[in-house]
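Subject: mismatched residue count in predicted assembly?

I count 550 residues in my input, but I want to confirm that the predicted structure covers every chain. Input:
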Amino acid sequence: MHALPQQLANGLFLGSMYGLIAIGYTMVYGIVQLINFAHGEIFMTGGFGALTVYVYVLPDGVSMWVAVPLMIVGGGLVAVLVAIGAERFAYRPLRGAPRLAPLITAIGLSLALQQLVFNLYPNAKSAISFPGLPFGPYHLAGIRIQAGDIFLLVAAPLCMAALAFFTKTSRTGRAMQATAQDPDTAQLMGINTNKIIVIAFAIGGFFAAIAGVAYGFKIGSVSYDMGFQAGLKAFTAAVLGGIGNIYGAMLGGVVLGLAEAVATAYISDIPGMQQLGGQAWAAVWAFVLLILVLLFRPQGLLGERVADRA
Amino acid sequence: MTAPALLDVRDLRVAYGKIEAVKGISFSVAAGEVVTLIGTNGAGKTTTLRTLSGLLKPRSGSIVFNGEPIRRLRPDEIVARGLAHSPEGRHIFPRMTIEENLLLGAFLRRDKSGIADDVQRAYDLFPILGERRKQAAGTLSGGEQQMLAMGRALMSRPKLLMLDEPSMGLSPIMMQKIMATIRELSSEGITILLIEQNAQAALSLADHGHVMEIGTIAISGTGQDLLHDESVRKAYLGED
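Triage response: the counts match. Full output below for your records.
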């Protein structure tokens, strides 16, 4: 039951989801040096936005081929609005304040968003079941692949490629790179950096929403506190890959997912570590990996040394 | 001096928290002129330039550029009006290529062929940049980075070019080259506001100069006047 190919596949799917969320952390950090600890909750509101579209907007019995795109649009819209709102009303007023102030604000915002959904969304006091995709599971060379995994397998590379293309070739993408490298000088080039910051939050929010929809399909439910663990893992993935680097975020997500899957399956086979196996220890292995990376390669897998900023 | 000034600064005050770095200075720059602000470290020269380009907000005073008050505008809006700023320490984008750096200087322009012409012009002005156009800008020497910073600032086709310490940290030969380029740009009709610690070099090419001392303008005059002024010579040109 611990067949290695299956574990690797599980890790890849989970890791792609972490990677999608991690992109939001890394883009925002790259541009305003802020760890947006409310990003996990933006992911959560994306999932709830998609659920709302399915349950309250679409007619009963609608085909999932119609529903899924509309759920992505709805979830994306909600998450982007929450992300932009957070930037505009929580973080922007604190720009230039000591670093601790926006960090604490982010943690407060994270709790506030959880409690808002918990108290105001109908029946959100426990997990709410999410619609399933009408295909799968498939068995391929002994690997079981669920519909939610297929969704991730399509969505994650597509998002990553679109983002890479956008940052490399578009005018706004170049402005983003310039703002990340040197915000003051970017302004002297005629770049409205406030606009760039809003765009970074919006892209991060949209990707988090896609991850939120994927989470719903994969787990079968969404809950008000789903952003806590996922957000922490995605933050770990962003640091692991080299915070500020979008490719690093995706790579960090996949590496983290693989490490988690393999560790939970095999650590207990090591003599003397029998009791450390299983899903309950997954987060522990994720953070052990983070600590190791921070010790031996503090800039992350693809990160550049911060010194060249000066 | 009867022509209306391109840039007119009146009673400008700028503070960092409680500390006032610029304490009510007034000066103007006429179209086509080279004007220099000289003075020691901490005199408020860089603060003045950063305020003119909108990176800092003044406490009070007025800044009129090309007939329009710009004090409350954002930096990108000020660039759009024709004021370019090559900052102290050059601040090129190290991980981008030389060509990408130049193109960012033209960020607000949409005329593709005009931009391509100006990139070529920058390469004509500084051939070394053309030879290394695909190279990461961080790999350039200090003098080459300064050329890139100036070339990049010119890419917006500014009415007024502000240069903050272009000769800082450069070898004497490189410094001469930069000064010669400033003279050349000026002869092409570009208006220049120059900050320099090398007072001798700056004053000898400036139409007007202002000596700043701890946030105020202590002495003003033509470049030649200041170059021969007894007190300026003692304080800034290293003579006793």
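Chain B touches chain A at residues 53-55, 74-76, 79-80, 84-85, 87, 91, 93-96, 100, 103-105, 107-108, 138, 152-153, 156 (CB under 8 Å). Marking this ticket as 'not a bug'.
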